[in-house]
Design a protein that fits this description.
2 strands, 269 residues, Four Helix Bundle (Hemerythrin (Met), subunit A), single chain, two-stranded antiparallel sheet
């Protein structure tokens, strides 16, 4: 192989690595945007309910135009001798209103955000692992930043998972099908939930409906609820921003879009 062919092959391999990382970067950016939307949606829903902008059980109405009927009528001229007349346009807009309960909307929106939040976080971790593999095979710089982003993404995925859905109250065993005592119904119901469960950043519909309007006499309970519905999602949001910043910096170094800053100490001089 001549020197020209070797140089051409090297350039082609470098271009192939660059195309692969560009594709992975586009996927990573879209996943970041979708995860950001999921977290902001849950935060927005909680604050809207907490500050009574919307209320559970409230009926909302949407009015939208369905048809437009346009008629033209000639206008009376100001002077009898004028032959030109300008038609007047009259539009009759027909509207249609549709009512729905806020509960019915949130009952479907919140599970969708839970499912997409967990799924997208897992896919984002896989994409970051793919980028790390490409950079290791190609011996590219910036792999330390992307590796750090992958580790933080694993932590983000564990935090996004709704662990509180599995930490329910334990069931007391019923005394038998023939028992007709008044306490049998209570025996088949779960015990009361513990005062604090290790939660994920994403809350469930049942959890929001039960606890969004908290008002305890204890300051500690109020702090726990605010941390549950606002603090944990904000912390997950900060982790997501950190993952995006670190991975973007590493990809810029690998693609040559940014120069690596090397600190020179007195020992190296």
């Amino acid at each position: 192989m001549t020197r020209t062919n070797a140089t051409t092959a090297t350039i082609a391999v470098a271009a192939d690595y660059a195309d692969a990382m560009m594709t992975a970067r586009r996927a990573k950016n879209w996943l970041f945007i979708l995860l950001l939307v999921m977290l902001l949606t849950q935060l927005t829903i909680f604050f809207l309910l907490r500050f009574k902008v919307i209320r559970l059980g409230e009926q909302a109405t949407i009015t939208a135009p369905t048809a437009v009927d346009v008629t033209t009528q000639p206008e009376n001229t100001t002077q009898p001798g004028d032959a030109d007349t300008q038609p007047a346009v009259a539009a009759n807009v027909e509207t249609k209103s549709k009512s729905f309960l806020v509960d019915d909307v949130l009952r479907y929106v919140i599970p969708v955000t839970d499912f997409l939040g967990v799924t997208l976080a897992v896919v984002l971790g896989i994409v970051l692992l793919l980028i790390v593999t490409i950079m290791l095979v190609g011996r590219l710089i910036g792999v330390s930043h992307v590796t750090s982003a992958f580790v933080w993404c694993v932590l983000l995925t564990a935090m996004m998972f709704p662990w509180q859905a599995f930490l329910l109250g334990t069931y007391r065993p019923a005394r038998g099908p023939s028992d007709t005592s008044p306490g049998l119904a209570d025996a088949r119901r779960p015990d009361s939930d513990p005062p604090f469960k290790i939660p994920g950043a994403l809350y469930t519909w049942e959890e929001l409906r039960r606890d969004y309007n908290f008002d305890h006499d204890s300051v500690a309970q109020d702090v726990l609820k605010w941390a549950r519905f606002a603090g944990f999602p904000v912390l997950a949001l900060l982790l997501l921003l950190m993952v995006q910043a670190k991975s973007s910096r590493g990809l810029k170094y690998a693609l040559g879009e940014s120069e690596v800053q090397v600190e020179v100490t007195g020992r190296d001089v």
